[in-house]
Design a protein that fits this description.
InterPro entries: Acyl_CoA_acyltransferase, GNAT_dom. The chain is built from six helices and seven strands; from the N terminus they run βααααβββαβαββ. It has about 170 residues and is of the alpha+beta class. The chain has a seven-stranded mixed beta sheet with strand order 1-2-3-4-5-7-6. β2 and β3 form a beta hairpin.
């Protein structure tokens, strides 16, 4: 049995009832820098996205899961993207939506569950992520899970007219 359950959170598939939560996340300008978003999303587009979220990762090449507490409160999302079957790798992104929910271990447990799922059930060889310079919480989170910094992309992201460097981190399943 595939378990995506931890001690304080569990990971679950997107549901139609997540429309408002996803809408709030995707339209929160304070996190657009992390998601490389530049424009707002309509409820209509998000509803269409949710209607197709059931597609298999092998077809969609991505997977988005909701980070939920055992009180069934959605606190964030964790994504696999650029899923590459041939090379057995995928990118990882994670977000805990509300600042007051951060530093409670939700992201730590969610990332651990996802890593185990990727290496055990998807038979991936490696995972990677990109983290903007200065995002110390994400650097610490991924480093604590064994991700290694393997490169620096200079002036990679333009945020309000200022260019920021971005680190590339990688975790190889040995």
């Amino acid at each position: 049995m595939i378990t995506l359950k931890g001690d304080i959170i569990y990971l679950r598939a997107l549901e139609p009832e997540d429309l408002d939560f996803v809408y709030e996340v995707e339209n929160d300008e304070s996190i657009w820098e992390m998601s490389c978003t530049q424009t707002p999303y309509s409820r209509f587009l998000i509803k269409q996205y949710l209607e197709h979220a059931h597609k298999d990762i092998y077809e969609a090449k991505q997977l988005r899961l909701v980070i939920s507490t055992y009180e069934d409160v959605a606190v964030g999302m964790i994504d696999l993207f650029d899923f590459d079957v041939k090379n057995k790798r995928a990118g990882v992104g994670i977000l805990v939506k509300t600042p007051s929910d951060r530093l409670k271990g939700y992201g730590k447990e969610a990332l651990g569950l996802l890593i185990d799922y990727c290496f055990t059930h998807l038979d991936l060889h490696q995972l990677y992520c990109s983290i903007t310079e200065g995002n110390m919480a994400s650097i610490k989170l991924f480093s604590n899970h064994g991700f290694k910094e393997i490169g620096l992309k200079k002036d990679w992201t333009c945020v309000r007219g200022t260019y920021k460097n971005e680190y590339l981190f990688q975790l190889i399943n040995n």
